[in-house]
Amino acid sequence: MRHTRRAIHAALTTSRTLAAAATGTLGLVRHAAENGLALLISYVKEDGTPSVRPITPEKVWRSKAGDWCLRAACALRGEHRTFRIGRITVLEIA
Question: pTM of this prediction?
């Protein structure tokens, strides 16, 4: 838990951090996916716990429920994961 708090604090205080509205986040994620850019995201899991993850976005789409989703290679887990863009709270180009 301490490590996660430190990582979130570091992400929030860096000058390159973008705390964007959902539309800005969507645009930046799309740009990263199209250009192969790595991102560092602070993400709120479904159970409400925060997570900081380095990812490489690959695909962005809108689900049938209307949520914007992101498929990315997650360096933390070493596998591909799907994230809801609306749950990304902080986004930084790595």
Answer: 0.72
